[in-house]
Structure formats: structure tokens, C-alpha cells
Amino acid sequence: MEAAVYVFSVLSFLSGLGTAIFYQIDRKKAATAAKMIAAALFCIAGVIGFCGRVQSTDACAVLLAGLFPAVAGDWFLAKKELVAGDEKRDYLNFALGVISFAVAQTLFIAAFILATASGGNYSFEFLPLAFLPPLFA
């Protein structure tokens, strides 16, 4: 199972790298496709890694429920790039992407709380890292 997580993670990274390259050479449709492939592979790695370790089926179900709005958020933000020039649709896609990610993050937090409440072996030693991104914004 660990090997599958690493394989899907590496494939997700490579697809993400392809996304960046396609954006650099101004191939937006190819970049969108690569971004969605990366999102799908990343979700598969997350499901295998998380659901394989947690004892709670409820936590796994909530995590799976969170992956759908996460992928939708990726889609809306990628779609935003495709409709550049149409400000109204651009703002709509951006807002839908942000809302989708907010719903996904809420469900992920709930899944991790359920996992730790059910006796999962998780530690919060990396929790302080959550405060680093605002420092660099």
C-alpha cells in the first residue's frame, strides 16, 4: 500500500510539473487537462494513504466527501484560466473555486478530527507549519 501512495504521488507531481510547463508555453487546454489529472492522482494517493491507516470508516467517508469539492475547486480555477477576458465569468469561476475549496477544507478537518477521535495514531507535531503560509503572502 505504501508503494501505491508513492507511485500516485510521483505521478501527481509529474502531472503538476506538466501543468506548469503547459502554462509557460501558453497551452491552456493542455494545462487544464494536466491539472485535472494531477488532482485526480493526488486524490487517489490521499484516499489510499489515509483510508488505509485510519480505523474509522466515518473518517474515510468524510475524507472522500471532501475530495469532490476539492476537485471541483481545481476545475473552477482551471476553467477560470480558459475564459480569461470575460470578467464576469472569471469572477464567478474564481468564487466557485474558493467556495469549493472552503467546503473541502472543512470536510478534511472533520475527517482528521474523526480519525483522531477513533484512536488513530496521528500527531500534531507539524501543526505550527500551518502558520507559515501567511508569513510569506
What does this structure look like?
The model has no long low-confidence stretch (mean pLDDT about 80). About 25% of the residues are buried. Helix 2 runs antiparallel to helix 3 (about 55-80). This protein has 5 helices and no strands. It is globular, with a radius of gyration of 17 Å. The longest helix has about 30 residues, at about 85-115. By secondary structure, the protein is an all-alpha fold. About 80% of the residues lie in helices and about 0% in strands. The chain has helices spanning about 1-25, 30-50, 55-80, 85-115, 135.
The number of E-state strands comes to 0
Strand percentage: under 5%
Helix content: over 70%
Distance between the termini: 36 Å
Give the helix/strand class: mainly alpha
Main pleated-sheet profile: none
Model regions low in confidence, pLDDT < 50 over at least 5 residues: none
Radius of gyration: 17 Å
Q: What is the number of helical segments per DSSP (H or I, 4+ residues)?
A: 5
Form type: globular
> What is the residue-averaged pLDDT?
80
